[in-house]
Amino acid sequence: MASARKIFLITTVLDPVDLAMTSSLVSRLDGMEQQSTWACSVLFLFLLRVGWMSEPAVSLPRWHSYQMLDIYIYTYINMYIIHLLLRSLAFSDNYIPPLIKADINLASMSTAVEAGGQNGPQQSGVSSSASSHTEIEEFRPSKRTWLIFLTLSVLTLMVALDGTSISVALPIIASKLHGSAIEAFWSGTSFLLCSTVFQPSFASFSNIFGRKPMTLIALTFFFVGTLVSGLSNNFTQMLVGRSIQGVGGGGIIALTEIVVTDLIPMRERGKYFGILSSMWSLGSVLGPVLGGGFSQNVSWRWIFYINFPFVGISLIFIILFFKLTRIPDSLATKLRRIDYIGSALFIASAVSFLIPVTWGGVMYDWSSWRTLVPLILGIAGLIGFMFYETYFAADPMIPVTVFATRTAVVSYIETVLHGLVLWCGLYYLPLYFETVKEYSPILSGVALFPLSFTVAPSAVVVGVITTLTGKYRWSIWMGFFLSTLGMGLLAILKVDSSVPAWIFLMLPAGVGLGMLFPGLGFAIQASALKGHMSMAVAMFSFFRAFGQAIGVAIGGVIFQNRMVAKLRKYPEFSAPGLAEKLSKDAAVLVQVVRGMPEGPQKMHLKEAFTGSLRFVWIVCCVLLAVGGLLSVFTASYDLNQGIDSEQTLVEKKDRNATVETGVTPSQKA
What we know:
MFS, Growth Hormone, Chain: A, transmembrane helix, MFS_trans_sf, transmembrane transporter activity, transmembrane, 669 residues, two-stranded antiparallel sheet, mainly alpha
């Protein structure tokens, strides 16, 4: 009951987010009567949740306990109200709040939505459908385009390798540097936190200073962080290096996807983003294998040294081939355009939110003030950030119009769910293999191939099919169906599951999750208003990383609570505090199980571990099902759109082109 109370306390703290998000939707409804009605409903929901917290526990059968009853009813009420709100917006995808409407040239929105045979929202394209279609037919990537894309692929592979290779080597690094488990935890977490929160800033600065300068700055951050990490003699130096690496890695992640939209017309982008997804998938698979191999057989420092060839090759290619139209403003003008207050608010608030989400249940209890205070401050800061960006920022870092359409809002929510579930799978499946099957870290990475190696091919196939057909909604629907089915199948995993069994059980999830990468990307890009493409792509990348950051934390909360309940059933783990200690961290539990002698105690621990993970897979299955239901509200936009960017490719003869005199896509064709 105490564990359940902790979860309820966290959900109560997080309810202001529900309140803020739902109130934002309410504000878009027409008519004072509708707004008043829905506002009262939202307020009633919030008060109901707080009041429910104070109710005494009731004694119910095991599978209908107070905790489950509360979760079921509360989730149902939440989903029902969100469903009604979204349904109210279902026929107004082109609705823009009055404060924003004046800032948008609605006459430039020329692409019609093909939804249910009805006239859909108008979409901003750089040209009409007919002229854009001609451009798509005539588009031929130049040699410079391919060289730039090759550079982007190398950068993507480098960041993916670095982000995933250190996890399996942390125990060895901790031993060599004489660090604690907490220090090892932060050296792995700092990269993900920094790479997540700095992505929108790099996207915003690239609109001001240009893609090439910001890509070079991001690469410099990554190189310096790599050098500091590789030469570290203690965990303080390691933490500094990994944080600097994360800043650069976040900039690289955001800018690689943005540059693709600068070079390639929308309908053609699927196969290019599919290739980038393949590079990311390849890096995510090879990272743990290389990390384990270097740390066990050579030196853990080579995990970082291996990045230097990638940095050198990328630097040369960026200098030689990144020729995009230059922004002619003076440095003083560019500096005045920076949204200093918005950037500071966003970074501080996002860090304040993600840090307690990351350490909750690992370093401190979820009910500890060290977890709750920064969490509340982070939520309040993010709400304040959106308020400032909407009403006060002259040149906002994240324009609120990025969320102006129904399709964009729904797709961003689905992107968070996609990233959350994907990272849960990539994090907890290796733990299953290392703990239950007792595979080595390298072999556990190989065992993950049925999931990780199906993500990339399915993303590429979807990209190619979408380019040929011009349709993308089918991939979102099919992706959520297969990934929901796949996560449900993972709940079948047992201690004694055979190799063929777990191979085939992982395949549907890998295919489905892979299909969602290009599908959601197309939905967000196609629904973006004119001039918002770069930030729309950056927010797609940010929300995916945000989902990944909270995915492990949410999985950890579920795992801990289920593990405690299951261990208490066995007499050998019934001693006070023993079950809680063993359930503290799933990664630490790996070493505990592997160090135990064979016998009933070890088998019981494996059964409890597998059963706890089963509940994680069930929750992931439910979240994906929610994403599938939300996908019904995704509109179908015309993909025959040109390049919506001021920073297009400049060939040799146009080397001195600026934004005003730069070559347009039609001229290049």
